[in-house]
Amino acid sequence: MSGRNERGSPYAPHTAAETDAMLSAVGVEGVGDLFDIPEQVAFDGEFGIESRSEREAERHVAGLLARNDDLTEFLGRGHYEHYVPSLVDHISARSEFLTSYTQYQPEITQGFLQALFEYQSMLVELTGLEIVNASMYDHATALAEAALLAARVRQTSGDRVLVPEYLLDARRDVLENYTDGAGLSVETYATDDGNVDPDALAETIDDDAVLVYAENPTALGTVEENLDAVGRLADNHDALFCLGSDPVALSVLQEPESVGADVVVGDAAALGLPTAYGMGLGLFACRDDFVRQVPGRLVGASEDDADRRAYTLTLQTREQHIRRERATSNICTNQAWVALRTAIHAAYLGPGGLVDLANDCVTLAADLADRLDAVKGVQAPVHDRHHFREFVAHTDQPAVAIAEDLEAEGFAVHAVGEHHVQVCITDANEHAADALVAAFEEVA
Amino acid sequence: MNYDQARWTHDANGESTADQYEPLLSEKNTEEVAVDSPLPDDLTRDSLELPDLSEPELARHYTRLSQMNYGIDSGPYPLGSCTMKYNPKFTEDVAALADAAVHPDRSDRSVQGTLALLDGLQDYLARIGGMDAVSLQPPAGAAGEYTGILVAKAFHEQNGEGEQRDEIIVPDSAHGTNFASAALAGYDVVELPSGDDGRVDLEALEAAASDRTALFMLTNPNTLGLFERDIGEIAGIVHDAGGLLYYDGANLNALLGQARPGDMGFDIMHYNVHKTFATPHGGGGPGAGPVGVTERLAEFLPAPRVRERDGGKEFELFDPENTVGKVHGFEGNWLVLVKTYAYIARLGDEGLRDASAKAVLNANYLASQIDYDIPFGPFHHEFVASAGDQDAADVAKRMLDYGVHPPTTKWPEIVPEALMTEPTEIEGKETLDQLADAFNSVASEDDETLESAPNRTTARRIDQTSAARNLRLSWHALEEEE
Amino acid sequence: MSFDVPDDRKYLESHEWVAVTDGTAKLGITDFAQDELGDVVFVELPGEGDDLTAGEEFGVVESIKAVSDLYSPVSGTVVGVNDALADQPELVNEDPFGDGWMVELELDDEGELDDLLSADEYGDQIA
Q1: CA neighbours within 13 Å on the CB side: how many for B322?
Q2: pTM given for the model
Q3: Which domains does chain B show, CATH number per domain?
Q4: Could you tell me which chain A residue has the CA closest to the CA of C62?
Q5: Which residues of C touch B464 (CB under 8 A)?
């Protein structure tokens, strides 16, 4: 026994002698004397939580998680997996990055600030918009912040946020929850064969619209063909156009700026994070006219007393710790470490690697759809569009039964309608495509 | 102790770029590739221009950047209110297990391990907070606050008082997020001035609480480290007015095993897991801000939550009956929740109780060793010293030269030139003495020395005015400038 | 520290000044205010033709560490805005009573000037 905290926190280094010396320096007999807690609210019970050694704790957690079935996932719908190079894990685990706080003392945190500045810059290139913040929580919360920004920057009144039929329920739910307090109303406009329908949008939109939202690729995996029209319609009614996407798709799909997007949101963790039960990285980009209305942290370049370029958080007067109830958002803690990982992954791939990866997302989805279409009882894809990573397939059997039967064969797919399944393929699961097709042949 | 942070420099010597530290990725090598895709041309971009470096070059780039950064593993980090404590390495290992890497749309039956862990964490947090039900969905403390406010709103709406209760009361010394979260939810913020002793002024609270009060948000111990001894009366005033009481969990690390928000009369609380349960701050995030509530509010929590099925043999997701809906697209920051669970499972009752005891002992010991005046007490896990005639921001810059991260400065404003200091439980006496030396050395230095600091960090004092007046938020903006 | 308080104009307790010549009034913030704020990085001002009301907000001034609302000492219609501040917000620090002016108004009621602080009164307030 070390005499060091046998029954205490393993991370508090005090020996009994040190504790005594500190207590006498403070002038009290025991640590209990330092708590100024009235008796009627003091807690003298037990939580009933067992203390464990590191080995026991590690085995306990590993044992719990081992109850997860080992399935090959062909799942997407907003959360995508690409192979994450080892470099990302090793560099991002360096404790100078991982265990640091927000960069409120920039002189001693140049490394993280520069990495975030580089993240912002790479997303500026991918979106074509001038401003990218240092992250929001995820796609859904970034979309909600886009609607709130639109309501703030629009000079005239109006409260309508127009979203396409294909918007995922979870995103819509978050959007409504975050914009209710601002009095915005979220309304759906019709889509046609998995793409926005410009005619339907033209009928729905009016001068009360503050934001029009579309995705590319859509939640159904289709590539949008009518974004120019959406941009024009939004512009005609002085509404902002917000496009949802991700950094892999942005590497080949139309540049958002070129179709008139004012804001781009998305989940940038498609690069940098493995599947993590929905943990993400909210991408938020916008035109520079809105820089003073941007939510979240921004890293900027400046100079130091040695006349060298240096980086710092800037425009902090927008944020809650200074502007309080008039801040552009309540966000404080963001997803900075995920942004670091995304930046490393993007830099690892480089422009050529990103374009290749994105092109694979097009061809892999097209090939798999072709092969499933050849399976008796399956028609794929349902939408007569180009696809990115994923597509919807029609199954003659009920989709839920298909998904359950595939699960028994070791595969996970989405059941998205009575006879519709959705299948997502990337570099992370393409090795199992043959086996998936064979399993479909068994169960369809 | 002597300290010099790594400083890679790259001087332009007449080149077109500026003198700098490590050059940007874009300045090392950039390629523009034409986008040739299986998609029709009109649906694709023409080209893409991004950095193009080899893996070894990138490994060096980022290793150098890491050397020019400071984490809790680098040295003391007594940032008040931020609770910068050691992040146990094994929690990284369990979060990286292949079994933890699952998609959120998996069927419940295929992710029983994930659900078991989430159920276990809901249970741990409920016990620690004295709450009856917990949602793990909010991805950060501020999102937790917002979730709690939505729950309060739903409760009042169910009672037919949704319209009437349009105010949220917040003490003037509260975290900025309290004000911002309340405003985001559409409430009017009523700011409550602190009493002369730095605590809630009961008379002022009596005057502020009314049939318009939806919620009173309070941190306890407060931002001065003081326990709100009148918490029983405070809860009485708020509840008598028909409002709910919200606990901002930012300072929970002071109270583990000593007092529980549920026992103090709080109806809703959020937990800051990277403050209390040692998950890494990651340079600003990700965090997690689980929300706990008492029984009568459980029906309003975000969907889905996890519960046992079949007598505890299995677990399932379910939507609370009158749920406020979702505050995150999926299930929050899962990997952070795994680390939280692992930390609590490691420490257990004894470890958690000792963590708070040592955190309070450390704050009191450090305070006893420093020369700056500390106007309010008795404090718990943190104290707020005053830099007096010195500028607290300059004090902080100078402390960097002593190889320690400075405290939080200039806040709360109730203490002039505030130095808000929270050493946490992880420092031993020797390190605390080193910290005290840094404080005391700086306390005796003149303004000129302070204003010229820091000298030993990578960058010297950075021009904040230039950054804000001449915005350069990407390398594209830097290129335009040149 | 002593601050300039020119006696050719009137003041608000919240540190704005108004100087009137021939029925038009220029507004700005005082030397004391710019010193309290520190380096000004952004000024948000109304547009020409906007109506301002005495005692109400007409804009925002931001430094790197604080944000302050601007209150109009008098009522009137905006007939001029200091566009130079968009690119040179530092003018507010360098010359708060001169080149750092913010807006020009056509006054609704010169009588409102009588309710404002004189240079002496304002000087006492900040002493």
Answers
A1: 15
A2: 0.97
A3: 89-346 (3.40.640.10), 350-466 (3.90.1150.10)
A4: A317
A5: 39, 64
